[in-house]
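In response to the reviewer comment on reproducibility (Comment 2.3), we provide here a single inverse folding case reported in full, input and output, so that an independent group could reproduce the run without further information from us. The structure tokens appear first.
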């Protein structure tokens, strides 16, 4: 059996937890009232007094249980959102060709270059290198991230990307 990630299961789980939370207070109040009435009868107290005290205690415990169920639902939804935010994109970012800086390469096939002047092209290349470095950084491949950040600093020393790369290197060391 192959197990795959399905975000709908998490959403369904959260919906069910919220439904249980909505009923928890009512269930605990009813149970508390019944138990309080039973204890009152055994101890010779008027049963409405015992039922009222039991219902009050049941309400406190029911609110706590409802909060716990909603917290679990929110945690599951948060994890699903984290997965959505960190899911790799399916389209690969364009990689600039080193042979011809006016051509963009995706995998093995070359496509016509962005018709940009040298300064804009260099800025685009620096941004792509920083993006690659950040991908390694977030993947905790710090040596590779540092190497790419250093390449940005070497090749584009006066750019905004080089400044950002210097900051990231300081943060990694």
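Designed residues, in position order:
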């Amino acid at each position: 059996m192959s197990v795959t990630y399905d975000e709908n299961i998490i959403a369904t789980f959260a919906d069910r937890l919220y439904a249980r939370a909505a009923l928890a207070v009512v269930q605990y109040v009813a149970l508390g009232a019944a138990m309080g009435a039973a204890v009152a009868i055994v101890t010779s107290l008027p049963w409405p007094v015992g039922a009222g005290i039991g219902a009050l205690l049941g309400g406190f415990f029911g609110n706590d249980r409802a909060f716990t169920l909603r917290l679990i639902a929110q945690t599951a939804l948060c994890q699903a959102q984290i997965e959505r935010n960190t899911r790799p994109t399916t389209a690969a970012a364009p990689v600039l060709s080193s042979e011809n800086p006016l051509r963009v390469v995706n995998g093995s096939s070359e496509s016509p270059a962005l018709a940009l002047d040298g300064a804009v092209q260099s800025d685009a290349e620096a941004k792509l290198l920083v993006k690659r470095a950040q991908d390694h950084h977030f993947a905790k491949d710090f040596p590779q991230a540092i190497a790419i950040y250093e390449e940005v600093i070497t090749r584009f020393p006066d750019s905004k990307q080089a400044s950002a790369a210097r900051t990231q290197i300081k943060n990694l060391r």
